[in-house]
Every structure is written in C-alpha cells, then in structure tokens.
Design goal:
Blueprint (H helix, E strand, L loop, with lengths): L1 E5 L2 E8 L11 E8 L1 H11 L4 E7 L3 H12 L2 E7 L3 E8 L5 E8 L17 E5 L8 H14 L4 E4 L3 H7 L1 H11 L3 E5 H7 L11 E6 L2 E7 L2 E6 L13 H14 L4 H13 L10
Helix pairs in contact: 1-7, 7-8
C-alpha cells in the first residue's frame, strides 16, 4: 500500500475566456474539484489499481465530509482528522494550461498526534514538500517519516512548489533531505534549478526525477545523469493542475511493483498525460 501524507482541499478551478480585466467582469468556466497534492497522488494511485491511503486533516464541515467521502468512493483508505475549516485553493488557468494557485490551506496544517497505525500495511510513504510547511503538520510529517524509516518503509519526497520551497527555506529543505535520504526525490525543472539537483542538493543515494513538461524526464543519481525518458505528445492540453501528482502516482506504483526507473517514469508520463485535458486534478 502507498501512503501519502498532506493536504486534502477543495479546488475552485477558474478557466477565464480571456485575460481577467481589473475592475470589471471576465466570463469564466468554474469547476469545483477535490484538490491537495497528497490527496491527488492517493486518488491517482488507486485509479491505476494500487492500494493507497491518505493521511491528513480536513475541517469539521460539510465540505470536509464530502471530500473524505470522495476519497472512499475513489478507493482510497482515509486516515483523516477533523478540525477547524476545510482548505480551499483557487486555481487560475491560462489558455495554454499553465495555472496560478491561491491557497488557503485551512485545516490541512492541523494534522497532529501521529500513530504507527497510519503505516499499518504500508510499503511506501510519499511526502509532498507542502506537508513540511505549517504546524503542527510539519512536525507530524517529520515524525511519520521517522516511523517509516524505523519500520524499513521506503520514502519519497516531492519538491512541490518553487514558492513554497522559497518560503520554507532552501537550506532547511536540503537539511531535511540530508537527514531523511529519501529513496526518490521528484521535482519539476524550476524546482530542480532552485535546489540545484542533479548534483548538489540531493544526497548521492537519492534517485532524483526531474520533470520538464513536454521535454524528456531526467533521472539523476549522485550527480550523474542516469537516464532520460521521452514524454509522449499530448493533444489538447488545457490544464496542468495535478499533472505532477499524476506522474508521482504512476512512477511510485510502478516502482512498488518492481519497475526500474526508466519504466517507472514511462508509467508516470502515461498517467500524467490523462489529466491534461480536464479541469483540475481529474483523470
């Protein structure tokens, strides 16, 4: 089973028909979707047939209850606490599919009181960097990673966000990587450039997977490029929201099944390609 710790929120995905005009109206298509990087990975993993578990916190409200029910319907095992109000992210999508996110994480950062029970039956733990940001979630995530390591459970980390990493602190994040030595570090090309991965930031034992949009995925270990995996062309790209989470789900589930890094990246590309024409993180 793949366990993922972190955010479960409501995404409000906005597709304006033109560039928003300040001080007046701009018509738009608006969709409400399940969001949160951790929840997305868990749902996508379940969609490709892997047992998955989400660990996180939502509000004591109808939105939180509906989001948890959606996880269950998707085949995800939820280990969820309820406090405060459920988080929301407004996602503004450009015509070329690029998105700008305005997050209000709400209850996501309130996760606390970790338990070994969260890791029962788990053979891989995935940690988006968002899960290190905010308290008590950050402390709880550190504790959960330590529990996983004591139990011999492999750990992967996703760099998640240039803005998030910058606010969290690059040295602080690098210190986390050095302490944990994750089995896999996932990053897009901007995050990789910020962290100087492919040599500097990630410990030598870490497989670093750098996604570059339509360009080949690059695989690094110990400062050496060990593979490149082409990305199949995708027609009609409309929204990149959740594509990185879909890639993570495909890559990690293939890895858990014994695939090598190139095969796993190919699987990640296939799952990511399925979300690019839909609003929000949906297959």
């Amino acid at each position: 089973m793949l366990a993922v710790v972190g955010d479960l929120v409501e995404d409000i995905v906005v597709w304006p028909v033109a560039a928003p005009r300040r001080g007046t109206d701009t018509a738009a298509r608006i969709e409400r979707r399940r969001g949160g990087s951790a929840a997305n990975v868990a749902v996508f993993a379940a969609a490709v047939g892997a047992p998955s578990r989400f660990i996180g916190c939502v509000g004591e409200d109808a939105t939180g209850a509906a989001l948890v029910a959606e996880l269950v319907t998707a085949g995800v095992d939820p280990c969820v606490q309820h406090r405060g109000r459920t988080g929301t992210i407004v996602v503004l999508v450009d015509p070329d599919g690029e998105r700008t996110m305005l997050p209000d994480r709400g209850a996501c950062t309130a996760l606390c009181d970790g338990s070994d029970a969260w890791l029962h039956g788990v053979c891989w733990l995935h940690v988006p960097a968002y899960s290190l940001m905010g308290e008590p979630l950050g402390t709880t995530t550190h504790d959960l990673v330590a529990r996983a390591r004591r139990l011999g459970v492999p750990v992967s980390v996703d760099a998640s966000s240039v803005g998030g990493l910058t606010a969290y602190g690059l040295d602080r994040f690098r210190a986390f990587l050095d302490a944990v030595v994750p089995d896999v570090l996932l990053a897009n090309e901007d995050e990789a450039a910020l962290l100087q991965v492919g040599g500097v930031a990630a410990p030598a034992a870490v497989l670093t997977v750098v996604k570059q949009g339509a360009d080949p995925v690059r695989l690094w270990r110990g400062g050496s490029l060990v593979g490149e995996v082409p990305v199949p062309p995708v027609a009609g790209v409309r929204d990149t929201t959740g594509a990185g989470d879909a890639f993570a789900a495909g890559f990690l589930t293939a890895t858990m099944d014994g695939a090598d890094a190139v095969t796993a990246a190919t699987a990640g590309n296939a799952v990511a390609g399925r979300v690019l024409g839909n609003p929000g993180a949906a297959l």
